Amino acid sequence: MKPKHFIIFDFETFYSKEYSLRRLSVPEYLLDPRYETIMMAVYIPPASPQIILPHDIPAFLEQYPAAETVACSHNALFDLSILSWKYGWVAGTLLDSLGMTRSLRRYKRYSLEACVKELFGREMDKSQLGRVIGMNAQQIKQAGLWGPMCTYAMNDARECWHIFQKLAPEFPVEEMRVMDLVLRCAVVPRLYADVPMLEKHLEELQHRKSWLLRESGYEKAALMSTASFQEALESLGVDVATKISATGRRVPAFAKADEFMTELLEYADSPDDDINYAVQTLAAARLSQKSTIEETRAERFLSIGRLPWGNGPLLPVALRYGGAHTGRLSGEWRLNMQNLPRDKTKSKLRAAVTAKPDEKLVTGDLAQIEARIVAVLAGQGALVEAFRNGDDVYAKFASIVFGRTITKKDQPHERFIGKTAILGLGYGCGHERFYRMVVAQARQYGIPLEGLFDLGTAEVIVRTYRSLFNRIPMAWSQLDVLLAHIINSHNTTQFSRWPDANYGPLTFKSGRVILPNRMPLLYTIGDPDLWGGVLFENIAQALARIVIMQAALRLNKLGLRMVLQSHDELVFGVEDDKVEEAKQIVLTEMTRTPVWLPELPLAVEIGVGQNYSDTK
Question: Where are the domains of the chain?
């Protein structure tokens, strides 16, 4: 990457107690009528930082052809979105020093001042921001604070450059290209929100909430009160389950994630059906009165879609580069587009995410990618070949467990248990945890388990998995040794490669594992919670992320730009007349074996739809 221009950008904008990023998402903040650019600080090394006034920004940007420029910021999702949405300027390469630091260092916080302190031991004075809260540019000048504000902004730009300069030698060019793709999903949005659908869906959700409240026979305050809710349940003969809280107290298990609350929704312990219905309604009403994820997301999608974009109800996809320890992306701007429910009967969010009117969404979802990586790294040859041959691995394992032939068509519930085992037991999961995993997922998908699965069955399945695929537990043991002697060692000169002593593709060093893309998995030396199974899970997830993002880079080079990435799936917006061609390109590139793991067999499921839901 040898750009003609490299520019650090830092915007200072108007904000107040009522109008700030604490209260609003970035799109809501930037497209609000109250928005005002106070100043733009830029740093073009080696020249000194400078302040560009709002009316001079267009002329400044005209000097730098976007295609020949790298734009970098600390929190680029904010600053570079301003450049795009307010000034129509998008650099040829987008970079983020915050994302670089998050992926290369383990700090408690990643604000500019926190990163400067950790990397260079310098304190930054942020008090200037507190002095100008609620002030526009004219008021800042009248208060005599314009000079200090300019100094503050230019210093931010300079420190952003110092961070980039410090970390760039450790940050591979390939990852810079990945970061650019990730940032563009928000900075140059290409997905749309179906506003009428969201309005109707939100109305239905709120109507159901009101109906459940009336059916329960209680006021909202009584349902929200733990004591009153417990009293109501006990009056119907329910034995209230308890749990130990974070503070060590025994409290009722009334949280949405608690198994007891889920059981209440299907309560049938009383011989009186009216009592059963009353208990179910009480539980549903309490849970509904607490704003559900579906409701809050629908409200947020709707709020963003209604903004004055100028060219339709856009829905930018903000993804946090390096959001997870393993390098996987995570959600930003309180949207969490990475985890939209798949159940079309319960959620309309996927259906509300649409392509442009003259485009379709084309998706490529890597099948069982982590399980395949686990099999290859462990040297579980028969399992690798089964994946390579396209066998129904889930059904084959379920057939062994249940002692009869299981097929996807005729025994879907048994196959579901086999699928959960193949995908979930590669990292040392015990039978009790596996039992909870299967029960939770079965409840989510409405799969009956009575007479088919219990704690004893879970124990048999775990033993069978470890016996049949015995090289996978051996891999945990190998990683335990590497953890004890390499990762937990303070000797920074020694290293070891795994699973092949010569080829790798993983290199173990003190406090880290170096991945084939030269990025690190970072660990605290002596972490008591880290063992071989957990380490294997981290490695498999990190390698799966590399596989999918390297495919995204190849596809981008071929003209297919990623508009969303979720777990092991890539989403593209494709013109209607190019969909069939795009499907073939996605198939080819997403099943291309990585050069650093040539034994890995890949498979991909292709989907097409006008909206995200229809691609499945």
Answer: 5-171, 197-293, 323-379+477-616, 381-468
Query: Could you write out the DSSP letters of every residue in 163-202?
Result: HHHHHGGGS-HHHHHHHHHHHHHHHS---EE-HHHHHHHH
69 forms beta bridges with 5
Return the CATH class of domain 5-171. alpha beta
In the numeric block, which tokens belong to residue 518? 């030269």
Residues in the chain where the model's pLDDT stays below 70: 1-2, 290-292
Q: Which two tokens stand for residue 259?
A: 């198994």
Cβ–Cβ under 8 Å, residues 182 and 319: yes
179 within 8 A of 70, measured Cβ to Cβ: no
Q: Does domain 323-379+477-616 have CATH number 3.30.70.370?
A: yes
CA 453, chain centre distance (Å): 31
Q: Which helix (H) or strand (E) holds 273?
A: helix 273-289
Report the alpha-carbon distance of residue 460 to residue 464 in Å, rounded.
6
The helix (run of H) or strand (run of E) holding residue 343 is none
Q: Does a cis peptide bond (omega within 30 degrees of 0) precede residue 505?
A: yes
With a CB cutoff of 8 Å and minimum separation 6, the contacts of 457 are: none
Compute the residue count for the chain. Answer: 616
Coil, helix or strand at residue 359: strand
Buried b / exposed e along 22-52 (16+ C-beta atoms within 10 A): eebbbbbbbbeeebebbbbbbbbeeeebebb
pLDDT of residue 272: 83
Alpha-carbon distances of 54 from 49, 79, 146, 153, 193, rounded to whole Å: 16, 14, 14, 14, 31
Residue 49 DSSP label:
P
Same fold, 5-171 and 323-379+477-616: no
In sequence order, the β-bridge partners of residue 430 are: none
**Per-residue pLDDT at 372:** 98
* 3-class DSSP state of 556: helix
pLDDT at 1: 56
pLDDT at res. 290: 67
Phi and psi at residue 350, to the nearest 5°? -65, -40
Distance in angstroms (rounded) separating the CA atoms of residues 586 and 183: 21
Nearest to 360 by CA among 553, 528, 576, 88: 576
Specify the residue for token string 């660990």: 523
Phi-psi region of 545 (alpha: psi -120 to 50; beta: other; left: phi over 0): alpha
Q: Phi, psi (5° rounding) for residue 308? A: -80, 70
56 three-state secondary structure: helix
Q: What pLDDT shows up at residue 375?
A: 98
Q: What is the DSSP string of 276-321?
A: HHHHHHHHHHHHHHSPPHHHHHHHHHHHHHTS--SSS-B----EET
Bridge partner list, 359: 575
Sign of the alpha-carbon torsion through 83, 84, 89, 92: positive
Let me know: does 68 contact 3? Beta carbons within 8 Å: yes
pLDDT of residue 37: 98
Task: Please give the pLDDT value at position 265.
Answer: 83
Q: Provide the sign of the torsion angle of the four alpha carbons 318, 320, 324, 326, taken in this order.
A: positive
Report the pLDDT value the prediction gives residue 292, as an integer from 0 to 100: 67
CB atoms within 10 A of CB 545: 23
pTM here is: 0.89
3-state SS, residue 409: coil
Looking at this protein, which amino acid is placed at residue 108? Answer: K
On whether the CB atoms of residues 369 and 544 are closer than 8 A, the answer is yes
- Report how far residue 164's alpha carbon sits from residue 104's, in angstroms, rounded to the nearest whole number: 12
- Give the model's pLDDT for residue 291: 60
